[in-house]
Amino acid sequence: MPGRTRARRAAGWGALALAVLVVLPVASASTALRVSYAGEVSPDARTRGRDAIWLGHAWVDGRRDADDLRALKRRMAGTGIRDLYVHTGPLAHDGSLPEKRHPRAEWLLDAVERELPGVRVQAWLGDRLVYGEGERGGLRLADGAARRAVVAGARQVLDAGFDGVHFDLEPLRSDDGDYLRLLDRLRPAVHARGGVLSVAAHQIDPLPGLHHVSGTVAGHGKWWSQEYFGEVARRVDQIAVMSYDTALPVESLYGGYVAQQTALALEEAAPARVDVLMGLPFYHTDDLGHHASAETAAAAVRGVRLGLGREAPERRRFGVALYVDFAATEQDWRAYRSGWGEHAGR
User: Fold this and answer.
1) Are 87 and 57 in contact (CB under 8 A)?
2) For helices 6-23 and 210-218, what crossing angle results, to 10°?
3) What tens digit of pLDDT does each residue of 317-334 get?
4) How many CB atoms lie within 10 A of CB 53?
């Protein structure tokens, strides 16, 4: 999927993990993350009914059917999932959205309205971003015509009946002003049609300025500054942090990292009117950037609850986002239900 290609992420994130080890003393960094993962979770840190799940392209190209939707309905029953991010693109490199890429969208929208009343379907759109003068094979946000085409694509899916548009454009440099200009055009266009504007966000600097280091090593960067995260959040209705692919080797370190990311996202970065969602890994690929034995849904849920309880336990506009439906296991769903469900912590 655009922005989620395993090979590209593995190479990039592996290099960035090495950068972190250069910048941070390994022992002190590990201690800090383990401490962040320790302690009791707040019994009030559980679903607010604002969760989401990323769904693959099979839902709009004919590979999924009514039986699959009924199975998804059973999995979602009693959870806090309110939004479905359905992969509807990808965008063309010029920013446009060919209609032939989502031939069964009407069926899905009608079926969800019938089977899952109250659940919103957002069109998940994205593409690989390019920055270098000679770089090809991606969307260039500096191109004003491309930005206008992206806005037109958002109007297109909303006119087709989607409840919102969820953008995942990667890898996105921290402090990219062209992205902010795109959001400034998207928000009024989406709201004019009564839609929700949602974005997937990079992780936030664990240390101030770390995004500069990752940008130097990999060219594009893994993290956003906290300030830039706030700039993006102020322009959207919903922001989902991709809090996975960390290269961390054990659960306690990963869970502590998620707790820190949750606190950073909530620490005056996102306005109170914005839904902040933290991503949960519902996939199990092993590579340099993702260790399945460490990045578990259970560890992520505990980290989210710790971070929420410490930073903003009263915040209602908060949730988790599950990535991704077609790779999820029963164990992932159990961890989400038991750790984050209505009765979690009781």
Assistant:
1) yes
2) 130
3) 999 999 999 999 999 999
4) 24
